[in-house]
Amino acid sequence: MQTDIEIAQAAHVKPITEIAAKAGLQRQEIEPYGYDKAKIKLDPSVNRKQELGKLILVTSINPTPAGEGKSTVTVGLADALQLAGKKTMIALREPSLGPVMGMKGGATGGGYSQVVPMADINLHFTGDFHALTSAHDTLAAVLDNSLQQGNPLNIDPRRILWKRVLDINDRALRHVNIGMGGPTSGVPREDGFDITVASELMAILTLSTDLMDLKSRVERIVVGYTYSKSPVTVKDLGVAGALTVLLKDAIKPNLVQTLAHTPAIIHGGPFANIAQGTNSILATRTALQLADYAVTEAGFGADLGGEKFLDIKVPLLGKTPDTIVVVATIRALKHHGGVALTDLNEENVTALKVGLENLGQHLSAMGRYGVPVVVAINRFTADTEAELQTIKDYVEQFGSEAYTTEVWAKGGAGAKELAAAVIEKTAQQSDFTPLYKNEDSAIDKLNAIVQTIYGGAHVVLSALAQKQLEEFKQRGWDKLPIIMAKTQYSLSDDAKKLAAPKDFTIHVREFVPKLGAGFLVAMTGSILTMPGLPKHPAALDIDIDEDGVITGLF
Question: Which residues are identified as catalytic?
Answer without folding.
Answer: 70, 72, 93, 104, 272, 300, 380, 408
